[in-house]
Design goal:
The complex is a heterodimer of chains A (213) and B (775). With 213 residues, chain A is mainly beta. Chain A folds into two domains: 102 residues, Immunoglobulins (Immunoglobulin-like, Sandwich); 83 residues, Immunoglobulin-like (Sandwich), CATH 2.60.40. In chain A, 7% of the residues lie in helices and 45% in strands. Chain A has one helix and 17 strands. In chain A, strand 4 and strand 5 form a beta hairpin. Chain A is globular, with a radius of gyration of 19 Å. Chain B is an alpha+beta fold. Among the domains of chain B are: 143 residues, Alpha-Beta Plaits; 232 residues, EAL domain (TIM Barrel, Alpha-Beta Barrel). In chain B, strands 18-19-21-22-23-24-25-26 form an eight-stranded mixed barrel, surrounded by four helices. In chain B, a hairpin with a 5-residue loop joins strand 3 and strand 4. The chains are: A mainly beta (213), B alpha+beta (775). At the A-B interface, strand 11 and strand 12 of A face helix 2 of B.
Chain lengths: 213, 775
């Protein structure tokens, strides 16, 4: 299946990429054919420049949840964790890519957190066990996250050869990396991708009006 | 206290029944107790088992919760996340201590051991309880009892470590040991043991039992199946046992001690037994007292009855309370009185003469034999003269009334004798205790004096007289019977001598004739030919010739000399020995008569027959045979029979007499007048001759009364065709009176005394009439 699928996927790539840049439209489906949300589609150039984009990303804490659930950042990105709730949060990560901890704080922490190492980082709140969020730290500047329709669009990807990676925090297995040839052109390159993802475990979240949280 | 049979039986039956009933009750209670105990134990065991299961589940949930909380500890998670071996190792030790787990393990998401408080050296390796891990991966957490490498059983709880994503699993092991078992034992009320079966071997991993019992339990479990509820014995104690699987090869053994369950029942049973024993004891005492109350009057009654049995009717039966036994006693008392009355009556009947109301012969003999030793006195027998004739002439009723009168008169006699009795017929007897011969003589005279007054019956004057025979004791005889006999002999003598009364000592002879009575001696006498025949001639008064003789038996005793027939014939008749004597006698007589006849002396010889001889069926044949044998004409033989001899069986006697008569033998009635036969009766017999008793004939010439009787008898006899022989003709006067009055024959001392056979022919040859010779 994988080789047949690969031929089907690769064929438009080979013929429909323009000379300068192209948009990549990726659709991530589950093996059952359902769209997969919050999947990261990352393209790392095999050769050529990998531009650094200095930007600050925000992961909010609102209504005792991390928003968004999945965040993709390029290495060296600073991430802000503004707290919009009326009470404090204590966010932490024990992930090797970024171990940090912001102890009980309100509003905005004084310093953003620099994610300078590629890898996945699981975020939690020490006082709200059900809160979780994931940050995928990548070296590439070309990546996108699927929406509820399972679609992700990576814009202005220069033509060239890329290593394509699909990732999801609840993926059952690491998807194999693939090479994709991007050719510039007006037509977006469409990629149909597959990800097998477990359902999000429901963690008990007590109602707020109990006043204890 | 003596336990009588009845009393014992009452007690035994009562107490026995009670014991039986109580034993049944105790048995029922005991068996139902045992059943209740068994049921109770089973029920308690089941309840305990439910509690146990719940407790273990609860404990597990608590452990899971505790483990989950522990796994959520930030620092713990942080430490685990470091992935630093020694950090992880030390944090699990630390947190293990916090939660109280004896074993802690950290397992990677891939199922590899990251840290282990027990076996640090062999890491990394796979987590050994893959099933627990699989369960946790499905359900988020899992738990169970597992035996670990150290051999101990642990309750293991496996929970995830989330940061917030699953970063590892932590397994916490809680040692299942004796304290665990004891704790559960306290809560369930059961004995809790954990057993591991490996093949046939059973090992106890933990137990609330004391050490001593564990090995026994392990062994017992080895022998029993692990299924369901069973009763197992551990030493002396029995346990209702339930086994439930805890893990593979491991089961929990829950036990309820039956002995403990029985404890309250044992107490109950003890109380019951005490009550039973006390009850039985009380009942035994009570029934013993009751039995004694019942038996005592019975015993008293019994003693009374024994007295009655012994013949003592005088003591009344004791008065008892009027219950059934009292009524019985009353009945006994009435019975006693009636028996006493009846006995008195019987005694009277036995000892009293019906006719006169005087004591009878039995009473007289008894009184006589009851006389104390060394006393002396006299016995007198009175016979009424001519009573037979009066009776004959006037009838029995007059005779009886005469006897009553005589009895009344005798009762008034003075001095009053010790006892007056009527012996029989016309014989009365007197016991004169302490009397000497002189006083006895006076007494006899006064008796005769009383009888001399005529007695008037229905206006008819009756002259009665009497004769008395007197025997003195102790000199005349030693015992009552002999004394009476001696008196009787004296009476005979008195009659014969017409003296009114005679003393036994004076009536001569009568030696110790008791000895003669012996049959043996008579039989010997017969064999030794001591019996001899004497012949007394009979005179034909008309022809003045001796035409006959009477053969008289004599006993020529070697030491005592000649013994008269009166001294042995009665006894021979009594004993039946006469049947041996008579044939001998007849043979001698026939033989002798035949010899005389053939020598030219033709006389008719008479022989006496007794009553027994008359009834003897062989008599006629014997007589016929003898006559033929000795070729003697039958008219030469005369057989004499007394009147009384015919009385026993008159018909048979008559038949035999008739046969003899047909044979041609002469028949004669002997001693006529001494008995009570009437001529009217005699005329029906085939007899030829009548012999008038000598008591009438003797001195017939002087006594008008006798003369009248003899004369009328001769006349009547002749009228009836009988010849008359007078016996006892003693004087020539008698002979000439008899001759004058037509008597045919005479016999007596006046003609000749009995003489030996060889003397007779010579005597006859020389005979001339006494009147002629004046002998």
């Amino acid at each position: 299946m994988s080789s047949a699928l690969a031929t089907r996927l690769l064929a438009p790539l080979l013929f429909c990429v323009n000379a300068i840049a192209a948009n990549i439209e990726a659709t991530v489906l589950s093996p059952a054919g359902k769209p997969v949300e919050d999947a990261a589609v990352v393209m790392e150039p095999v050769v050529g420049a990998n531009p650094k984009r200095q930007r600050t990303v925000t992961i909010e804490q609102r209504d005792r949840e991390f928003i968004p659930y999945v965040t993709i950042v390029q290495t060296g990105t600073m991430v802000e964790f503004p707290n919009h709730d009326a009470f404090k949060h204590h966010i932490y990560s024990f992930s090797p890519a970024k171990v940090f901890e912001i102890k009980l704080y309100a509003d905005k922490p004084s310093q953003p957190v620099l994610f300078d190492k590629a890898g996945e980082v699981a975020l939690g709140c020490n006082i709200h066990d059900w809160m979780e969020a994931y940050v995928l730290v990548v070296n590439s500047a070309y990546f996108a996250k699927t929406g509820s329709g399972g679609r992700a669009i990576i814009r202005d990807v220069p033509a060239g050869r890329y290593r394509l990676r699909v990732w999801h925090p609840r993926q059952k297995a690491e998807a194999p990396l693939r090479d994709v040839e991007v050719r510039s052109g007006p037509t977006p390159t469409r990629l149909d991708l597959l990800a097998d993802v477990a359902a999000r475990a429901s963690k008990p979240k007590p109602p707020l009006d109990s006043g204890k949280y | 206290m003596i336990l009588g049979t009845l009393q014992r039986r009452i007690v035994v039956v009562f107490v026995g029944l009670l014991v039986l009933v109580l034993a049944l009750i105790v048995g029922l209670v005991s068996s139902s107790n045992n059943r209740i105990v068994a049921n109770e134990a089973t029920r308690e065991l089941a309840a305990g088992a439910r509690i146990f299961t719940r407790l273990v589940e609860q404990n597990q949930r608590q452990l899971e919760t505790a483990a989950t909380v522990l796994a959520g500890d930030f620092a713990f998670r942080e430490a685990i996340a470091t992935q630093d071996q020694s950090t992880v190792q030390s944090v699990i030790r630390n947190h293990g201590l916090r939660i109280g787990a004896q074993a802690m393990m950290v397992i990677s998401t891939e199922g590899k051991m990251i840290a282990d408080t027990q076996q640090q050296s062999v890491l990394p390796r796979s987590f050994q309880f893959a099933d627990l891990l699989a369960g946790a991966q499905t359900a988020g957490k899992s738990s169970g009892f597992r035996q670990m490498a150290d051999g101990f059983l642990y309750q293991i709880v496996l929970v995830p470590i989330l940061a917030p994503k699953l970063i590892a699993w932590v397994a916490m092991g809680f040692l299942v040991d004796d304290s665990w078992a004891r704790e559960l034992s306290d809560m369930t009320g059961l004995t809790v043991s954990v057993a591991r079966r490996h093949g046939a071997a059973v090992a106890l991993l933990a137990s609330s039992l004391e050490t001593a019992k564990r090995t026994v339990l392990a062994q017992t479990l080895q022998d029993s199946s692990s299924a369901s509820t069973v009763v197992l014995a551990i030493g002396d104690e029995h346990y209702q046992t339930l086994q439930m699987p805890l893990a593979q090869e491991v089961s929990v053994v829950l036990q309820r001690s039956l002995e403990q369950a029985q404890l309250p029942f044992r107490a109950l049973q003890t109380v019951l037994l005490i009550v039973v024993f006390a009850g039985v004891a009380l009942f035994a005492i009570g029934s013993m007292m009751l039995a004694r109350r019942i038996v005592r009057p019975v015993n008293e009654l019994s003693a009374s009855v024994r007295r009655i049995q012994a013949g003592d009717y005088t003591q009344p039966v004791p008065k008892l309370p009027l219950d059934e036994i009292g009524q019985l006693a009353m009945s006994f008392d009435h019975m006693r009185e009636r028996i006493a009355n009846r006995e008195e009556k019987i005694l009277r009947l036995a000892y009293e003469d019906n006719l006169t109301g005087l004591p009878n012969r039995t009473r007289f003999l008894e009184s006589l034999s009851q006389l104390p030793a060394h006393t002396s006195g006299a016995v007198a027998i009175l016979n009424i003269d001519r009573f037979a004739l009066i009776n004959n002439a006037l009838g029995n009723r007059v005779g009886d009334r005469l006897l009553i009168k005589i009895g009344e008169r005798l009762s008034q006699i003075t001095p009053v004798p010790k006892l007056i009795a009527r012996l029989w017929g016309d014989e009365f007897a007197f016991l004169l205790d302490g009397t000497d011969k002189q006083a006895a003589t006076a007494f006899a005279q006064s008796v005769l004096g009383i009888l001399n007054h005529p007695i008037t019956l229905d206006g008819q004057r009756l002259d009665v007289g009497g004769s008395l025979g007197i025997a003195m004791y102790p000199q005349d005889a030693g015992d009552a019977t002999a004394l009476l006999r001696r008196a009787d002999q004296a009476l005979v003598a008195a009659k014969r001598r017409h003296t009114g009364f005679e003393f036994s000592a004076d009536s001569g002879d009568e030696p110790v004739h008791e000895k003669l009575s012996l049959v043996g001696e008579m039989r010997e006498a017969l064999a030794r030919q001591e019996f001899v025949l004497y012949y007394q001639p009979k005179l034909d008064l008309a022809s003045k010739k001796i035409t006959g003789a009477e053969a008289l038996l004599r006993w020529r005793h070697p030491t005592r000399g000649l013994i008269a027939p009166v001294h042995f014939i009665p006894f021979a008749e009594q004993t039946g020995f006469i049947r041996e004597i008579t044939p001998w006698l007849l043979e001698r007589v026939v033989e002798q008569t035949a010899r005389w006849y053939h020598e030219g002396l033709s006389i008719q010889v008479s022989a006496n027959l007794s009553a027994l001889d008359i009834l003897n069926p062989n008599l006629v044949g014997h007589v016929r045979g003898l006559l033929q044998q000795h070729r003697l004409a039958s008219e030469n033989l005369c057989l004499e029979i007394t009147e009384s001899a015919l009385m026993d069986e008159p018909e048979l006697a008559l038949a035999h007499l008739t046969e003899l008569s047909l044979l041609g033998v002469k028949l004669s009635i002997d001693d006529y007048g001494s008995g009570q036969a009437s001529l009217g009766y005699l005329k029906t017999l085939p007899v030829h001759e009548l012999k008038i008793d000598q008591s009438f004939v003797t001195s017939v010439a002087d006594s008008r009364k006798n003369a009248a009787i003899v004369r009328s008898t001769i006349v009547l006899s002749h009228e009836l065709g009988l010849t008359v022989t007078a016996e006892g003709a003693e004087t020539p006067g008698d002979l000439s009176w008899l001759e004058r009055n037509g008597c045919d024959m005479a016999q007596g001392y006046g003609i000749a005394r009995p003489m030996p056979a060889d003397a007779l022919p010579g005597w006859i040859a020389n005979y001339c009439l006494p009147a002629a010779t004046h002998r």
